[in-house]
Each structure stands twice: as C-alpha cells, then as structure tokens.
Amino acid sequence: MDLIPGATTCGSGLSAERTRMEVAAHNLANAHTTRTADGQPFKRSQVILESASMGGDDGFESKLAGVRVADVIEDSRAPKQIYAPHHPDADGNGMVQTPDISPMEEMLDMITASRSYEANLSVLRQGRSMAERTIDILRQGG
Amino acid sequence: MENGETVLLSKLLDLSMQRQQAIASNIANANTPGYLRQKLVFEQTLAQHLESRDMKGLAAVQGELQDDMTSPPRADGNNVQLGNEMNDLVQNSVYHQLLTRALATKMRIARLAMS
What we know:
heterodimer; A: alpha+beta; two-stranded antiparallel ribbon; 3 helices; 4 strands; about 20% strand; B: mainly alpha; 4 helices
C-alpha cells in the first residue's frame, strides 16, 4: 500500500495526460509538414488510453484501476489536397498533400489533457495532506 | 485504549483512505473510453457490526468497489464527471481531517488521564 493513498494511480494519470499533451503538440507542430521520412505527408497521431490494474497485493488495491497509454496510432484520415503548383511537393495537377489537422481539435485535446493533469495533481496533494495528518495524530496525541 | 470508539474511528480513517484511492482511480481514468465510475461501499456492513457491537467484525470491515451507474455514460462509454469527483475529493479530505482530529483528541484525553 502506498503511504500516500492513490499515489500510484495519480502517477499513471499524470503520465498518460502528459503523453496526450506531447502528442497534441507533435500534431500541431507538424500541421503543415508535407514530407516525412517515408516521403508521405505527416499523419496525425492519436493516443489510446486504457485502464490498467496497478497491481496491489491485497484484494482492494488490485481492483483499483490506473490508466496507461495502450497505443499511439496514426489517424486514418486522408491527407488534404491543396492547390499550390509552385510547391516542390506538388503533383502533376499542382496539388499538394498536407496533413488533415484541425488546430481546434488539437487545442481541445490540450485543454482537456491539461485540466485532467491538474485534477490528478490535486488528488496527489490531498492524498499527501491526508498522510501528513494521519502521521500527526501521533504528534498531537502521543 | 482498545475501546469501541477508537476501533470505529480508526476503521473510518482506513475507509476514507480507501475512498481516496477510489477517487484517484476515477480521476486518472476520466478520459479512458469505457471506464465506469467506481464507488466505495461499506455503510451497510459497518452499520450491521455497529448494531451488534461486534468490535472484531467492525475492525475487519473492508470497503467494496462497485460500478456506479447513477450518471449516464458519455458517447465513449465513460461516466466519470470530473466536477463530481473533485467535490468528493474535497469532502473526503475534510472528513479525514475531522476523523484525525477526533482520534488525536481521544489520545490527548487518555494521556491527560495517565499523567
């Protein structure tokens, strides 16, 4: 058992939200990338979260679920076609394939990730003060 | 020292720690598709042991996790509402504070009686 109740679970939440934030930043940064290592336009990444047991030894804790990043997958959306005949990556018709990334969607992801990160942090803070108060029983009473 | 009140107080303290873990789990999974809110259930067993003055049974009461279906799931099958969880978190923290203070007061009284 954690000394701070829920610390492992909060930790898993913090790292999952961090990954979501990183992936959103990665998507936004590459919103106009027409060329990647394989010569294709950039494909949007998406984080898949799943709940996972935090592996406590007693019955109660083994039932508690934390969260983990199951996978980061490539979005299946087809690239957008933009007419830009002078672009070096344009095809015969003057069309350039650019990633179909909506800044609104990524911003929304970033906001929810950041709010959830804060929520996990405050659980951790409250848990810490609970542990401190429990330890203080001995100081006040003993 | 091992009287009924102390046993009850420390059990409640224990259960509030468990509830904190359940809330942590709900908040960590606020964005996990298909996750259902977990609630800690213990009131009934606790009340039974209290009624029969069964202190051994009282000390052994364990909280049980159950799926909470009171709020309808969103499109992704998740039914955690972050606002409600934050509310529970604060309430649980204040409750825990109350319990620690009660336990500390009991111990202080005992010490006064001894000195």
